[in-house]
Amino acid sequence: MSENSYLPLLEEMISDQLVDRGITRERILEAFRSNPRHLFVPGRSRQEAYADRPLPIGSGQTISQPYIVALMTDTLDPAPDDSVLEIGTGSGFQTAILAALAGRVFTVERKGGLLEEAKKIHKKLGLNNVRYREGDGTKGWKEFSPFDGILGTGSVPEVPEPFIEQLAEGGRMVLPVGDRRQQRLTLLEKTDGDITRRESSYCSFLPLIGKNGWDE
Ligand code: SAH
Predict the structure, then answer these.
(1) Are 57 and 11 in contact (CB under 8 A)?
(2) How many Cβ atoms are within 10 Å of 36's Cβ, its own excluded?
(3) Which of 5, 12, 150, 196 could disulfide-link 173, Cβ–Cβ 3.0 to 4.6 Å?
(4) Catalytic: 2?
(5) How do residues 122-157 score in pLDDT, each as one tens digit?
(6) Pair 31, 100: CB distance under 8 Å
């Protein structure tokens, strides 16, 4: 995709896939503008980067559908000073959107190759508030906890206990919980030590493989 030829496609994606479906917070839309999705899509799929669906990124994984990234971000609603933990870096697209909105982002990816690619793209974009770890993110990242926000971009059978422990007071967590085929986007909030839980849209994510996720 040449220099600016993506701009009309990006704007069309924002209006048709995000705004028309209820994602209207300007700071979120702006994060999609400053992180053009085609930069995160490798190979031949790049031409389809603004399509309304997930796309392959290699290693058998996918970059999520733009609307899903926007919906999860909108549900998490990170504040500028927040520290956010993301599990499943993948292409690094959701990571970059979070980095544009939150103070610091901690992202964990199981596949080293994907993590390296994501780092390179972030470097090009000049992101400097992201910390990376290769490993099993279903254990969270205790060292940098508590987190104001936790976002899981792969499915889990149940909310991992470490996520609950590592969530800050007043913090929010968004992740797909269900079976391997279908899940519900689940929002958890911690207030006065109590957890409230709300389930919303049905969705279908790739699995998080690990101690508190699925077996390979
Ligand atoms: N947000 C990413 C979604 C990638 S799909 C994007 O839009 O590009 C889910 C990702 O979770 C995959 O990259 C997969 O390798 C990773 N993953 C699976 N199990 C994991 C685990 N236990 N810890 C960290 N990452 C994991």
Answers:
(1) no
(2) 20
(3) 150
(4) no
(5) 999 999 999 999 999 999 999 999 999 999 999 999
(6) yes
DSSP 8-state class, residue 118: H
Mutate to test the pocket of ligand 1, among 65, 71, 110, 155 (most ligand atoms within 8 A of CB): 110
Note the pLDDT of residue 2.
65
Please give the number of the atom of ligand 1 that sits closest to the Cα of 211. 22
Atom of ligand 1 nearest to the CA of 95: 1
Q: How far away, in angstroms, is 192 Cα from ligand 1 center?
A: 31
Distance CA 4, CA 10 (A): 10
Residue 176 bridge partners (DSSP): 185
Checking DSSP bridges between strand 61-63 and strand 55-58, what pairing results, if any?
antiparallel
> φ and ψ at 158, to 5 degrees?
-150, 160
The structure tokens listed for 22 are 């209820």
Instruction: Please give the structure tokens belonging to residue 209.
Output: 């493989």
Instruction: For tokens 């199981």, name the residue.
Output: 110
| Cα 21 to middle of ligand 1, angstroms | 25
**pTM greater than 0.70:** yes
With bands split at pLDDT 50, 70 and 90, how would you rate the model's confidence at 4? confident
What would the pLDDT profile of 161-172 be if each residue is shown by its tens digit?
A: 999 999 999 999
Catalytic one of 5, 59, 64, 83: 64
Mean pLDDT of 48-63: 96
